[in-house]
Fold this sequence. Notes:
This protein has one domain (5-51). Helix content is 42%, strand content 12%. It has helices at residues 16-30, 45-51; strands at 5-7, 41-43. Strands 1-2 form a two-stranded antiparallel ribbon. The longest helix has 15 residues, at 16-30. The protein is elongated and about 40 Å long. The mean pLDDT is 93. Keywords: ATP-binding, Kinase, Magnesium, Metal-binding, Nucleotide-binding, Pyruvate, Transferase. Its cofactor is Mg(2+). Pathway: Carbohydrate biosynthesis; gluconeogenesis.
Amino acid sequence: MNSYVLSFQEIDKTKLSMVGGKGANLGELSRLMGILVPEGFCVTTEAYKKIT
């Protein structure tokens, strides 16, 4: 089963092809101590492909 929406906490650099560069970087930043990243999510490239 594919997840079409991932929270920043679920994303790391291994998901680059799923969420793109900005999404992967926000996911990585959300894991670093001292870096405040607002809660958020990314819609995956798979979701985009499904609706277009």
